[in-house]
Structure formats: C-alpha cells, structure tokens
Amino acid sequence: MANSFAKLARSAELSGRLQVSKEPIENPPYDIHKLGDEVLRKPARRIGKVDDAVRKLATDMLVSMYAAKGIGLAAPQIGVNQQLLVIDLELEDPSSPPLVLINPEITSVGGGLCTYEEGCLSIPGVYLDVVRPSVVDVSYRDAFGRPKRMKADGLMARCIQHEMDHLNGVLFVDRVTDEEKLVEGLNEKGFNRSDVHTIA
Ligand code: ZN
Hints:
Order of helices and strands: HHEEEEEHH
CATH superfamily: Peptide deformylase
Helix content: 25-40%
Number of helices: 4
Bound molecules: zinc ion
Structural class: alpha+beta
CATH topology: Peptide Deformylase
Strand content: 15-25%
C-alpha cells in the first residue's frame, strides 16, 4: 500500500497535482467528526515539511470529502490536528483540480461584508446565514510545498474562511447571530445548542 502510494505520489509530483477520483466511494478512509466532539475545538498545528505523508493525508481527506459530497474539509474534522484544508467547488467536473491549502493565512480582507447560508460536514443538515468579509487574500503552501497566494471572492472566499475557522476550533454555528433559527436548525437535526461556542 505504501509503495503504490509512493509511486502515485511521484506521478502526482510530475503533474503538479494530486491524482484523486471525485467519484463518491462507500467506505472512505476517514469518518468526519460531528458537532459536540471535542476534537473539533482543538486548534491545529502548523505543518513543517510538506512530504508524502502530508500528500497522503490530503488525498485521503479529498476522498472522504467526495464521499460525503462536501466542497470543503479541514483536517480537524477527521481528528487530525494539522493546518491542512481541501476545497473543491467543481464536484461535477473531473478535470478541475481540487485546492489543497497548507498553513493558510489570510493576509487581507475586503469588499465589505456579506451574508451567505453555510453548511458543514460536521453539522449535517443544518444550513444557516453567516456574515463574513466578501473578499480575502490568502497565502498558503500547496500539496507540493510551493508557496502560493490567491485572491478569492464569492463562494471560494466563503469556503476558505469557513475551513480556516476549523483550524482554530471555530464552527460556523458559533458565528450565527439569529438565535431562534440557530436553535431551531440544531434541534431539527438532533444537535445541542450547548455545543455551540457563540462568538460575541
Ligand atoms: Zn465545516
């Protein structure tokens, strides 16, 4: 298993992207932790060397994300305490490469604030409005350790901020300001209001 992954990793390195099928599989490598699980609240550590082990983790996270039909997943959601995110807004397009962000940092925000309905693989079925900056500049390392910068707006800006919150142990429900809708949404799906750490 390790050898075949190493081979795959080398071919990925040559192409500059991870080779992952977007087809949802039945038994993904990782289960996704849910609201109420304390691992989601632990801040993640920076990754030192971006090596095959990190690429294997990113690949397994992508497979787990595709299995759950999500567009973003952060390492703490699978119980791994590292600053690694995967994002793919083009689930239906096999040729569009997913994004892997290692040690991401938001260097500036702009475009004012906007409201958008968010959901989370750790809080399945709950969709609520959250206010965040519209545009973000992000610096990060990619799956091959290359330093990158990007300016993101729209859904991508939203997704990056949501996933980066996970690295700080923050969940989108912590940012929901409509208390009534929050309680209603959580109750409907069997989650507890007491597991939300509302940000004042
Ligand atoms: Zn989430």
